Structures are given as C-alpha cells and as structure tokens.
Amino acid sequence: MADVQPVPEKDPAEWTTGDEPMTGPQASYLHTLAQEAGVGVPDNLSKADASKLIDDLQARTGRGSRGS
C-alpha cells in the first residue's frame, strides 16, 4: 500500500477570499483562543489574517496542535 501524502495547506495570503471579513466561526474561536492566551483580538480582521492569528494563538495555547 502506498503512503498517502497530506495535501499541503494553501497559504492564507493566497486565498481568493482572504481579503473578505473573517467569518463568525473564526471570530468566535479567535476570541476563545485570545482569552486563553491573555491577548486581544483586533477588529475587522480579514479571513486570511484571522487564520494566521488562529495559527499563532493555537501555538501559544497548545490548542489544535497537529499530530497529537
């Protein structure tokens, strides 16, 4: 059986909708992560910027770590 390689994730900066406002679920999750990390969330983030901040806050809080 061949090893299955994961599909590489596309950089949020390359998303065609990345400049649109962040989604409701992104905002909700960001606020949860920010509260745990003790930081604030900037207003009016784009989808791409929200995704990058989620990745950063997941790393800070240990949430959503891949491979665990």
Strand content: under 5%
What kind of oligomer do you see?
Answer: single chain
Task: Give the helix tally.
Answer: 2
Anisotropy-based shape: flat
**How do the helices and strands follow one another from N- to C-terminus?**
HH
Could you tell me how far the N terminus lies from the C terminus, measured between alpha carbons in angstroms? Answer: 24 Å
Largest sheet: none
Q: What Rg, in angstroms, do the CA atoms define?
A: 14 Å
Secondary-structure class? mainly alpha
Mean pLDDT level: 83
- Helical proportion, percent range: 40-55%
**Total beta-strand segments:** 0
Q: Which stretches of 5+ consecutive residues score pLDDT under 50?
A: none
Please characterize this protein's 3D structure.
- This protein is mainly alpha-helical and 68 residues long.
- It is 43% helix and 0% strand.
- It has two helices and no strands.
- The protein has helices at 24-37, 47-61.
- The longest helix is centred in the C-terminal third of the chain and has 15 residues, at 47-61.
- It is flat.
